[in-house]
Amino acid sequence: MENLAPCPSCGSQYTYPLDALMVCPDCGLEWNPSDEVEATVEELQIKDANGALLANGDSVVVVKDLPVKGAPKSIKAGTKVKNIRLVEGDHNIDCKIEGFGSMALKSEFVRKA
Length: 113
Known about the structure:
Structural class: mainly beta
Oligomer: single chain
CATH architecture of the largest domain: Roll
């Protein structure tokens, strides 16, 4: 079995070659392995409600009640969310919340646990 380079963006070990490029199935990044120096991807600098930097895999706590469209109840303040994933966009945290499933949250409504 080949020793393939991990993804420079998310660090996934499940990369695979596609023509002249390498592909990461987890984050979707495609890069040319011969351009390793240029393949460095800037990390997202996302801060919580208190200004602390968040990272992938962190645990956070919701700081205020958040209404959920289509759900009969809201996410209560103090709900702990484990293993977050940072993404680009308005709602910059992807996570799973027990009782609600997959959600996208704004970082301004959470604090680092």
